Amino acid sequence: MRYHGVDLHKKYATISVRNEAGAEEKFVRAQADIKGYVSGLSCEDVVVLEVSAGAMYWAEKIQAQGAQSIVIDAYRFRIIRDSWQKTDRHDAANLSLALWLSSRNGEMKLPKVWQPDSVVRELRRLFGMYDLLNKQVRQLKNEVHGVLLDNGIRDRGLGSRLVRQPEKAEELLKAMELSAASVVCIRTSLALLVNLGEKKEALKSEILQAGKAFEAQVRLLLSVRGLTPLLALAFLSEVGDVRRFSSARRLHSYLGVVPTVRSSGGITHRGAINRRSRHLSRTLFTQAAIHFVDSSPSLARFYGELSARKGYGRARIALLRKVFSMMRRMLLTGELYRWTETKLYERKLNDYATKIKKGENREVA
Fold first, then answer.
1. Where are the beta strands (DSSP E) in the chain?
2. Domains in the chain: boundaries
3. Residue 280, Cβ neighbours under 10 Å: how many?
4. What are the C-alpha distances in Å from 158 to residues 1, 145, 324, 362?
């Protein structure tokens, strides 16, 4: 067996190869032809890469050659993170050494990262763009509110009407005392908001089409009040196969809805949630929290009591943990939500089927 440590960069890769004895037998400082390197691999090769842009793509190509690929979390890989000499050569050599130690002697446990398939990667790419559009929408809305404040208009409801109904903006702007530059800025922001709204709707359709492989799971999760196809696919794109999480707590940690814990000398401090985890589901599901509260008497009671004691912020995160746990259980057992509202569920299924069919017809056309 040969053990490869690959340090990927934008234009090249630094590669260190060790033999079965652990000795470095080959080192390439700048491998520009990464495709050619991958084509020369076989079942006798094991390759480790740091998770980065393009790592999952090359890991899939490596596996297609019959070789074994391992993707690791560089942040948790302390040999590289805490290295005194942070160079490409040391990084690649440390990767190949750690791989050899892990494979041959079991002296080191590599912090492996789950390697999603192409469907999940495509969904994640689309959701990444969706998240970017949402950030731009928030920036433009804040810009409108900021311009109004600069002109002495403190009525936030007026700004909300502008961004919600940009088609009626001219009528509202005429009734305000604004500088010429302020009017131009608001008109520009509102025009961009309209354009972004259209792009978001088109992107939602693309997400539904890309997630057709998860159609059975989506139809199951739609039985929860407040869960839309978009939310279900956001959850599935982050989680993938829910069976890879042995417990609900591991799932919660992965989705970033558990507090950080620091313990020393018998004293434990619980801090804010861990923001180094995946955040998409947490962000989108927080916006629909009130609908989950209304989905069952037990959740309503749980949220009401906790928000009174801990505040709404902590109560929302605790509610998401409950919802994610229920979704995990539903996917494992194949059972519908216990408090399914039949008529609402049927409407959601029909609407989902209509959108999928509309997208398919558009692709054919």
1. 2-8, 13-18, 24-31, 45-50, 68-72, 259-264, 267-273
2. 2-105, 118-210, 214-355
3. 18
4. 69, 9, 37, 38
Q: 269 forms bridges with which residues in the sheet?
A: 262
pLDDT in tens, 205-226: 999 999 999 999 999 999 999 9
Cα–Cα distance list, 143 to 156, 167, 176, 201 (Å): 12, 18, 17, 22
Buried b (16+ CB within 10 A) or exposed e, 142-176: ebbbebbeeeebeeeeebeebbeebeebeeeeeeb
Question: Phi and psi dihedrals of 121, rounded to 5?
Answer: -65, -40
Burial of 100 from C-beta contacts in 10 A (0-12 / 13-18 / 19+): buried
What are residue 8's DSSP bridge partners? 13
Query: Dmax over Cα atoms in the chain, in whole Å?
Result: 81
Using CA atoms, how far apart are residues 174 and 17, in angstroms rounded to an integer? 70
Q: How far is CA 69 from the centre of its chain?
A: 23
Minimal CA–CA distance to 3: which of 12, 13, 21, 14?
Answer: 21
CA dist 326 and 274 (Å) reads 21
pLDDT of residue 137: 93
Q: How far lies 35's CA from each of 59, 69, 313, in Å?
A: 12, 15, 48
In the 8-state DSSP scheme, what is residue 101?
I
- Residues of the chain below pLDDT 70: 81, 84, 105-107, 260-277, 363-365
- What is the fold of 2-105? Nucleotidyltransferase; domain 5 (3.30.420)
